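Regression test case RT-17, inverse folding.

Input:
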């Protein structure tokens, strides 16, 4: 078995003073030969057998795999977990569009090249008709979803968003509004001085269909205090998603790695997500990507982008660790099509969205949007059948001979005992 070679995760130095808490300046990926015999080999074999038998690994075992399993073993284990959850050789994707109604934000994240402060010359809020035209174009192209996120705008409140959602829902009932991340919902709660549950209820009644997993970055407070000190805390991010699930909506989860976190903190992030999924069952999918440092406001403080080997390692480990997540999504927008194709054998069963428009990642100079034909060719080339899906992972492809379930937010709803249905809430 070939080694993945040497990967580098430089220390994030500079004014933040990360010091000894940062990853090592030079991290050598484990060689297959180094763990062929001895106590470490026996431990890896034990954990691998546990995964293959369908067992749940502990944080300590997750860290063992991260630090000592070679990339071939991780791929084998992740592919087996994917196959167990999705025995049919299908990889899904969604026809969607990213719309950013505003780029105004006051959280000043140093890794974000998209945002602008209020009153900046390049700050904007899109006119309603511009947004409507973008959604109309998406619908005409057979789209099923628009991902709408802005920033932490100090003056746009939930009534602005609710009015927009209600208008779009009436005009385009076939388009799901996958909108407003947990930090944005928390921001609305704070500037309106009311519980986030009320904000979620009002937006759901207006037409919010599901909530994206953005803003998670790294769910470890030490890391968040360095890279996003003004953004929602770890516990608050998780609690907002808990409240979203309690309201009946589904949401996704994400992780941005490769900045100042340690390997153990990557595992901690996955553990926090797994624990909440055990509690609510409300997450539809998980996606991860490495920090894209090019062109961001504090580029000089961030380490170079992590290597493809590290991305595959974390991607595979997420599939192994998140045993209660049905779907793992690749990130061709940040990694490119060829790497995304490889990840289909490293645990991913979903290719993400066509993203007819993308602004946040492209602002960092790494936009890699591709057409539907290219996405399908990559999926087919990896040995799978491509199928279009909706926001809740129901297959809506004419080539699919089975039922589409779930086909709406109501069918996908998380239903705590005694709660009202989403049909009742949205009526």
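Golden output:
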């Amino acid at each position: 078995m070939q080694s993945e070679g040497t990967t580098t995760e430089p220390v994030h130095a500079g004014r933040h003073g990360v010091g000894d808490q940062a990853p090592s300046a030079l991290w050598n990926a484990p060689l297959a030969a180094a763990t062929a015999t001895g106590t470490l080999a026996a431990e890896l074999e034990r954990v691998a057998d546990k995964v293959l038998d369908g067992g749940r690994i502990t944080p300590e075992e997750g860290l063992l795999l991260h630090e000592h399993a070679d990339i071939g073993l991780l791929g084998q284990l992740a592919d087996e977990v994917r196959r167990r959850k999705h025995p049919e050789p299908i990889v899904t994707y969604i026809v969607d569009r990213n719309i950013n109604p505003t780029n105004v934000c006051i959280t000043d994240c140093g890794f974000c090249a998209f945002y602008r402060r209020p009153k900046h010359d390049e700050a904007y809020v899109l006119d309603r008709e511009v947004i409507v035209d973008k959604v109309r174009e998406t619908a005409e192209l057979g789209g099923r979803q628009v991902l709408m996120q802005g920033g932490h705008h100090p003056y746009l409140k939930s009534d602005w968003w609710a009015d927009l959602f209600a208008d779009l829902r009436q005009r385009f009932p076939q388009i799901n509004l996958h909108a407003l991340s947990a930090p944005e919902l928390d921001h609305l709660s704070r500037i309106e001085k009311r519980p986030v549950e009320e904000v979620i209820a009002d937006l759901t009644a207006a037409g919010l269909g599901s909530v994206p997993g953005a803003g998670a970055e790294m769910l470890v407070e030490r890391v968040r205090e360095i890279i996003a000190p003004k953004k929602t805390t770890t516990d608050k991010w998780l609690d907002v998603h808990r409240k979203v699930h309690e309201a009946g909506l589904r949401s996704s989860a994400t992780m941005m790695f490769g900045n100042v976190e340690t390997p153990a903190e990557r595992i901690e992030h996955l553990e926090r997500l797994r624990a909440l999924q055990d509690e609510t069952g409300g997450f539809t999918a998980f996606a991860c990507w490495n920090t894209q440092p090019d062109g961001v406001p504090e580029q000089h403080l961030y380490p170079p982008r992590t290597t493809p080997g590290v991305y595959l390692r974390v991607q595979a480990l997420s599939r192994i660790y998140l045993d209660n997540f049905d779907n793992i999504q690749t990130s061709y927008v940040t990694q490119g099509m060829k790497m995304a194709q490889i990840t289909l054998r490293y645990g991913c069963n979903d290719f993400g969205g066509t993203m007819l428009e993308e602004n946040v990642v492209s602002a960092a100079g790494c936009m890699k949007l591709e057409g539907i034909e290219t996405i399908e060719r990559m999926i087919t080339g990896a040995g799978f059948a491509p199928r279009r899906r909706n926001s809740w992972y129901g297959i809506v492809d004419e080539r699919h001979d089975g039922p589409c379930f779930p086909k709406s937010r109501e069918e996908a709803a998380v239903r705590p005992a005694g709660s009202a249905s989403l049909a009742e809430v949205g009526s």
